[in-house]
Write the structure tokens for this entry.
Amino acid sequence: MFAQNKSSAGPRRTGYNRPVPTRLRMGLVMRRDMAFGELGDVEGALRAEGVGLAPISTGDASLITGGVTVLATATAKDIVEGRLKGLVVPGGSTDEASLAAIKSLLDLARTNGLTVIAFADGVALAAESFGVSAEADGAVFKDGAVTLLGDNGALSKIVGAIA
């Protein structure tokens, strides 16, 4: 078909979607049995807003999810030194060691003024750390205030405002 054309150009791709450039980096707390509640594919929604997710380990076992080993690319030091703009806390397993690590990361994020986006049972952990009450599938914590998330549209709006 293209041989009949006098043009040397090959087939053109149409409908190709380029990935959104990363405009900010947030830490993703890795937990066994990670869950985002009713909001579904939150990672895709965050990436669509230009958020690069950097996994943070809460223990050796949390880095293996579904038979895939995930390498941690961020640490608590990145929170302290300002290389992360926020922290994403999904729901997941509740063993004592990982809960202590998650609470430590939440306290660091709160102390350093980072935005914390929590999902499922991560909402209760973040609310406890920030000293507020919140019951929802998703919530955003910043400067002692909480915003409940009802859908991915609300999440996109809030994430879009993070600079």
User: Anything to note?
Assistant: Residues 60 and 98 are 10 Å apart (CA to CA).
